[in-house]
């Protein structure tokens, strides 16, 4: 009796290891179902900032408006129309060869400027119409640099915009659809009532990484895990207490019906937001479900060395040559690669949106800079005038243009005297020290500090004793206390015009 009981236990134990039990693959089906639903959904990333194309075109028109006539007239045909590059003569094309790459844009800008009847008002409001000629030249150079930078920013914007989600969503949907069905659009064989491709008609490819026509696809992989062979429909491997009516035997003609039933385990979610993070998480979760048996990777429940869809072998995918104890090339399978490529594009779209936002802001700043150039020039002029007004050396400039400041930069006798407009003055108490000043007689001094007794130049204001002119009384009364400052006399040695009596320095009375 004990022997019979032992034999029965052995049979039951062996049976429990060979029969595909209820929901054996239910846990694995979770991340695979999630991938299916992500393929149904809407690839989603941060929306790119809107680009105001009028910003760049407005700056280009502004730049053109400030160009000289010789530049602008090149882009006008017969005095009024747009001169296209193709409309130029052969000789003109040779002469303008260096302008060819930008010609059409310049011609279009000149044409748009001529057609804009309110642009002159904008120029006046910004202050461009009141600039002096030197200021216009300066403004032109500032504008050229600003517009060139704006055009480079615009190129980067165009590049970033091509990667934004609105531009690549269709590409991403094609990647996701290819991952599931092996076709970029539609369910392919999984939605047809006729016979599918040979590899999709049997369970055989479950032993070859789920490859159909040499390329693995998610839909077939899911069938390997959830669809039993004929006679074992009650196995319920992917959903507890859900019994299938379909089996592999029907795949030769009605794969669409099989897929419809298996897909019912995982309801479609066409409005789901598909993100890069969710895709990568689902792939990672599926990868973690792979187990090794005799150093070969398997996805799903397996009992023997093969994945035949039966209780004797198991419902699984065998990754011989793909996953082992020494390698893992699961991410190189076509459907996995498609999903990861889609995730990369969604992530790139998010990065492009962020880049676009930064570039749009930069373009706005450049636009403000361009239109604010007159205010900048005006502010610079005011600042220059203010600095000049407070310059302590402004009245100490020699006829040669040398100022006290120019000479003061010399700190040694040798460099001071090397400057023909300067002279070295030694310190009376310390001959090792001194100061470099403009040469006497060449420096234009401030009022009241000129050399007394010297005749003023014609048209120049007289200073010191010479300021009394022909007023002898005023000259002789010019004294400080008892000290005579001026005297009416003839010149002494070293003075000018020695035979003429006039008001001279009183120090020569000694």
Automatic annotation (TrEMBL):
<dbReference type="InterPro" id="IPR019609">
    <property type="entry name" value="Variant_surf_glycoprt_trypan_C"/>
</dbReference>
<feature type="compositionally biased region" description="Low complexity">
    <location>
        <begin position="441"/>
        <end position="461"/>
    </location>
</feature>
<feature type="region of interest" description="Disordered">
    <location>
        <begin position="427"/>
        <end position="510"/>
    </location>
</feature>
<dbReference type="InterPro" id="IPR025932">
    <property type="entry name" value="Trypano_VSG_B_N_dom"/>
</dbReference>
<keyword id="KW-0336">GPI-anchor</keyword>
<feature type="domain" description="Trypanosome variant surface glycoprotein C-terminal">
    <location>
        <begin position="407"/>
        <end position="510"/>
    </location>
</feature>
<feature type="compositionally biased region" description="Basic and acidic residues">
    <location>
        <begin position="428"/>
        <end position="440"/>
    </location>
</feature>
<keyword id="KW-0325">Glycoprotein</keyword>
<feature type="compositionally biased region" description="Basic and acidic residues">
    <location>
        <begin position="469"/>
        <end position="493"/>
    </location>
</feature>
<keyword id="KW-0732">Signal</keyword>
<keyword id="KW-0472">Membrane</keyword>
<dbReference type="Pfam" id="PF10659">
    <property type="entry name" value="Trypan_glycop_C"/>
</dbReference>
<dbReference type="GO" id="GO:0005886">
    <property type="term" value="C:plasma membrane"/>
</dbReference>
<keyword id="KW-0449">Lipoprotein</keyword>
<comment type="function">
    <text>VSG forms a coat on the surface of the parasite. The trypanosome evades the immune response of the host by expressing a series of antigenically distinct VSGs from an estimated 1000 VSG genes.</text>
</comment>
<feature type="signal peptide">
    <location>
        <begin position="1"/>
        <end position="21"/>
    </location>
</feature>
<protein>
    <submittedName>
        <fullName>Variant surface glycoprotein 1125.4058</fullName>
    </submittedName>
</protein>
<dbReference type="GO" id="GO:0098552">
    <property type="term" value="C:side of membrane"/>
</dbReference>
<keyword id="KW-1003">Cell membrane</keyword>
<dbReference type="Pfam" id="PF13206">
    <property type="entry name" value="VSG_B"/>
</dbReference>
<feature type="domain" description="Trypanosome variant surface glycoprotein B-type N-terminal">
    <location>
        <begin position="7"/>
        <end position="364"/>
    </location>
</feature>
């Amino acid at each position: 009796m004990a022997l019979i009981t032992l034999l029965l236990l052995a049979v039951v134990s062996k049976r429990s290891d060979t029969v595909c039990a209820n929901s054996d693959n239910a846990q694995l089906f979770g991340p695979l179902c999630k991938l299916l639903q992500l393929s149904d959904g809407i690839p989603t990333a941060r929306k790119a900032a809107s680009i105001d194309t009028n910003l760049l075109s407005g700056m280009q028109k502004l730049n053109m408006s400030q160009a000289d006539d010789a530049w602008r007239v090149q882009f006008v045909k017969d005095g009024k129309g747009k001169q296209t590059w193709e409309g130029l003569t052969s000789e003109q094309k040779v002469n303008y060869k260096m302008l060819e790459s930008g010609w059409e844009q310049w011609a279009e800008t000149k044409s748009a400027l001529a057609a804009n009847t309110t642009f002159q008002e904008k120029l006046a409001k910004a202050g461009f119409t009141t600039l002096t000629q030197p200021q216009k030249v300066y403004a032109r150079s500032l504008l050229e640099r600003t517009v060139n930078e704006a055009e480079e920013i615009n190129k980067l914007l165009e590049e970033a915009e091509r990667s934004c989600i609105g531009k690549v969503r269709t590409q991403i949907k094609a990647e996701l659809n290819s991952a599931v069905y092996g076709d970029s659009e539609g369910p392919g064989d999984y939605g047809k009532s006729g016979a599918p491709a040979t590899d999709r008609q049997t369970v055989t490819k479950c032993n070859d990484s789920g490859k159909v026509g040499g390329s693995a696809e998610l839909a077939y992989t899911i069938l390997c895990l959830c669809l039993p062979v004929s006679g074992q429909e009650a196995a319920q491997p992917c959903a507890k207490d859900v019994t299938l009516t379909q089996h592999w035997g029907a795949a030769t003609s009605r794969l669409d019906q099989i897929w419809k039933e298996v897909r019912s385990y995982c309801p479609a979610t066409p409005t789901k937001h598909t993100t890069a993070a969710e895709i990568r998480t689902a792939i990672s979760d599926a990868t973690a479900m792979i187990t090794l048996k005799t150093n070969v990777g398997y996805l799903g429940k397996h009992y023997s060395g093969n994945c035949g869809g039966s209780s004797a072998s198991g419902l699984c995918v065998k990754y011989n040559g793909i996953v082992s104890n020494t390698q893992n090339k699961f991410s190189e399978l076509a459907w996995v690669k498609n999903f990861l490529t889609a995730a990369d594009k969604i992530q790139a779209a998010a990065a492009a949106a962020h880049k676009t936002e930064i570039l749009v802001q930069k373009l706005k700043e450049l636009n403000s800079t361009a239109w604010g150039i007159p205010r900048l020039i005006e502010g610079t002029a005011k600042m220059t005038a203010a600095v000049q007004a407070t310059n302590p050396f402004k009245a100490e400039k020699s006829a040669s243009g040398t100022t006290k400041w120019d000479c003061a930069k010399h700190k040694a006798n040798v460099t001071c005297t090397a400057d023909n407009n300067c002279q070295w003055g030694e310190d009376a108490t310390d001959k090792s020290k001194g100061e470099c000043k403009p040469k006497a007689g060449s420096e234009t001094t401030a009022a009241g500090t000129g050399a007394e007794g010297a005749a003023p130049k014609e048209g120049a204001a007289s200073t010191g004793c010479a300021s009394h002119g022909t007023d002898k009384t005023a000259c002789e009364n010019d004294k400080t206390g008892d000290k005579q400052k001026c005297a009416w006399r003839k010149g002494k040695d070293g003075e000018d015009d020695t035979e003429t009596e006039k008001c001279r320095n009183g120090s020569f009375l000694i």
